[in-house]
Amino acid sequence: MQRTQIVFRTLRLHIKAAASGNIALDGPRSVMTNIPTPKATRFSASDTQNPYFPGKIKAKVGHPMLVAVKLWALAHLLANGMLHDLLLFGSFLAWAVVDRISMKRRTQRPIPTLPATRANDAIAVIGGLAVYVVMVVWAHQWLFGVAPV
User: Fold this and answer.
1) Do 34 and 67 fall into the same domain?
2) How far apart (Å, rounded) are the C-alpha atoms in residues 81 and 87?
3) From CA 86, how far away is CA 69, in angstroms rounded?
4) Could you give phi then psi for residue 144, rounded to 5 degrees?
């Protein structure tokens, strides 16, 4: 049996079990390892705390990752004018816009989280700038064969 058939078969089994009420899916971990998590012992990190450290930036923009994807896609659309670039980066931009609209329309479930601090913003900005510099100076050329500057 091919790997994709095994994954889809496992996923179907998990969906049937969840629909019958026998197990609760606990994210990709239970699907990929093929180990159903019983409802009585279900426990995940989201039950205790949010793994992200919120800051003032998140409070302002709502979903920083969607904003980043929009900026990334728009920058690549402006820099590249070929049809395949339009399809790739345009689809990412469309997805981010639709996801943001969807996020505004649905009710958000309360997630326990840490308090928003400026230190978390500083970590995000400094870490993001470091990754950006590495990508521009070295990784973009190495990964994609195109120098960004």
Assistant:
1) no
2) 10
3) 15
4) -115, -10
Residues 61 and 129 in one domain: yes
Handedness of CA 137, 148, 65, 54 (dihedral sign): positive
What's the pLDDT tens digit per position in 99-145? 999 999 989 887 777 788 889 899 989 999 999 999 999 999 999 99
Distance, CA of 84 to CA of 62 (rounded, Å)? 30
- The total number of structural domains that make up the chain: 2
Q: What is the secondary structure of 7-55 as a DSSP string?
A: HHHHHHHHHHHHHHTSEE--SHHHHHHT-PEEGGG---GGGT--SS---
User: Residue 62 carries which DSSP code?
Assistant: S
Residue among 138, 116, 112 nearest 47 (CA): 112
- Do 95 and 125 share a structural domain? yes
